[in-house]
Amino acid sequence: MAVEMHAGLASEGGSKLKMLLTFVDNLPNGTERGTYYALHLGGTNFRVLRVHLNGQRSSVLEHDVERQPIPEHLMTSTSEELFDFIASSLKEFIAKEGDGSNISTNRRELGFTFSFPVKQMSVSSGILIKWTKGFSVVNMVGRDVAACLQEALARKGLDVHVAALVNDTVGTLALGHYHDPDTVAAIIIGTGTNACYLERIDAIIKCQGLLTASGRMVVNMEWGNFWSSHLPRTSYDIDLDAESPNPNDQGFEKMISGMYLGDIVRRVILRMSMESDMFELISPKLKIPFILRTPLMAAMHEDNSPDLREVARILKEVFEIPEVPMKARKIVVKVCDVVTRRAARLAAAGIVGILKKIGRDGSGGITGGRGRSNTKMRRTVVAIEGGLYSSYSLFSEYLHEALNEILGEEIAKHVIIKVTEDGSGIGTALLAASYSS
Question: Are 116 and 132 in contact (CB under 8 A)?
Fold first, then answer.
């Protein structure tokens, strides 16, 4: 991971890791004051938030949220229609403030989280590379996403300035840093996975001559696409990848994120049932891709009833396998365990790769060479968000176990993993505060 990070920073296309520049060099630090907005377009829903900051690193920020589905026809219409709809919703949201009488008196600052592939041009502008998640708005690819929103806000008569355009991982880092200044990286591990971290500007060789006041910049790794010959793949991984809508893409994500773990388990159980008499008969449902969702896999894995009745119930409900002998139930739990443990350990190895790259793994940086240096290890916080880590206790347990194992207990105790909630909302509003004009 550390070697690929170096390659991705050295040249465009030099690595499977895109190592995208975010132009964020100024993270929120807790002194921010005022009211800021965030807009999150992440998929089929979008959200608007309002956050009030009082200049102290408040433990809970007062904030209001409104969530709305994107009408299906807008996902394939024009950029004007899509952004006019979003701007109208924001206008209604702002109108509900107080008595709504002074909607036009003062300019508002907004952070925009846009969870699609974007090439950032500055902290508040970026060009859409391609649509994903079922969107195919015709005249958008190659255009500046923030400008499209800014124009729609103007058409609706709103004095709102788009101060920051960010990826949700960067929002998570901002939120983590707001609460704890030792935060140097952020990981999202839920349905999908990604990571970003704070890099020294002189280490980003592909943007020579770029200067920032802080001498640092947040880099969005797009680590779901990480690949390496050191990553051992099984026949199940190879088949899942080949049959997915994006073959040869997002290799790391397919081994560690919630979207895929349940399906790896299904594939293993299917093969076992074909090669043995584990179940009386092979249910046709076992052959349906993605029928076993990861939350149900986690429920089977964490079933601690003496007769594993939850396992039997889920196998019956999902796969229509009526009678599952106790021995087979135990095997299913074991399969869930192996798949989850591997995912958590790979995620931990990825985190250590980042720490190694920035010299926070206790070895004195990747070029240190001579064993552990005796420089004192600094407290290092990694912000983490996503259901796989926060609601799946065995996953998080295995991840910590692997961190201890790779770093050694002495170093690992300086690395703190902190759960954040809603980086893509609150974190983005905080970035709007950091970059407000």
Answer: yes
Q: How far is 52 from 65, CA to CA, in rounded Å? A: 12
Task: Provide the residue-wise pLDDT of the chain in tens; the chain has 437 residues.
Answer: 999 999 999 999 999 999 999 999 999 988 888 899 999 998 788 999 999 888 877 655 667 888 899 999 998 899 999 999 999 999 999 988 764 444 455 789 999 999 888 889 999 999 998 888 788 888 899 999 999 999 999 999 999 999 999 999 999 999 999 999 999 999 999 989 999 999 999 999 998 777 778 899 999 999 999 999 999 999 999 999 999 888 999 999 999 999 999 999 999 999 999 999 888 888 999 999 999 999 999 999 999 999 999 999 999 999 999 889 999 999 999 999 999 999 999 999 999 999 999 999 988 654 444 445 455 789 999 999 999 999 999 999 999 999 999 999 999 999 999 999 999 899 999 999 999 86
How many Å from the N-terminal Cα to the C-terminal Cα in the chain? Answer: 37
The active-site residue, picked from 15, 124, 125, 168, is 168
Distance CA 320, CA 315 (A): 6
Region label for 393, one of left (φ > 0), alpha (ψ between -120 and 50) or beta (otherwise): alpha
> What's at 60, amino acid-wise?
V
Taking CA 128 as the corner, what is the angle to CA 125 and CA 130, rounded to the nearest 5 degrees? 165
Q: Which of 15, 79, 115, 257 is catalytic?
A: 115
Q: How far is it, in rounded angstroms, from Cα 94 to Cα 88?
A: 10
> In terms of Cα–Cα distance, which of 110, 119, 98 is closest to 156?
110
Active site residue 168: yes
Burial class (CB in 10 A: 0-12, 13-18, 19+), 276: exposed
Cα dihedral across residues 85, 87, 93, 98: positive or negative: negative
Catalytic status, residue 239: no
CB contact at 8 A, 186 and 169: yes
User: Is 47 an active-site residue?
Assistant: yes
Question: Which residues, at least 6 apart from 321, have a Cβ–Cβ distance to it below 8 Å?
Answer: 279, 283, 286, 315
